[in-house]
Amino acid sequence: MNHALTALVSRLSYGAGDNLKDRDTSRGFVEAVAQVYERARNALEYRADNLVRRAAIERILKRRMLLNNDPDSLTRHLLTELRWARYLSHEEIGKSKRQELEDILKKYSSHLNGTVPTEWILKTASAEIEEIFNLNTDYRQFTFFAFQVIKQKIATGDKDLDLLVYFAVDKVYAGSDDEQILYHILRLAGENFTKEKLEEAWKLFNLAKRHKDLPRIIKFVRRQMPPLILMRDIYFYDPSEFKNSLSGQEKFEAKAQEVLETQLSLMSGKVRTAGTRSVIYVFLTKMILAFGLEVPLETLFYGQVGLLPLALNLSFPPVIMWITTMQIRLPNKNEQTALVSRTWTILQNFDGLKDEADVLRQSESGNQRGLLYYIFSTLYLVFFVGIFVLIYSVLGKIGFSFFSKFIFIFFLTIIAFFAYRIVQIAKVYSWKGIRSESSTFMEILSLPIIAIGSRLSVGLSKLNFLAFAFDFILEAPFKIILGFVDGWVQFLSIKKEEQIIE
Question: Where are the domains of the chain?
Answer without folding.
Answer: 267-344+368-463
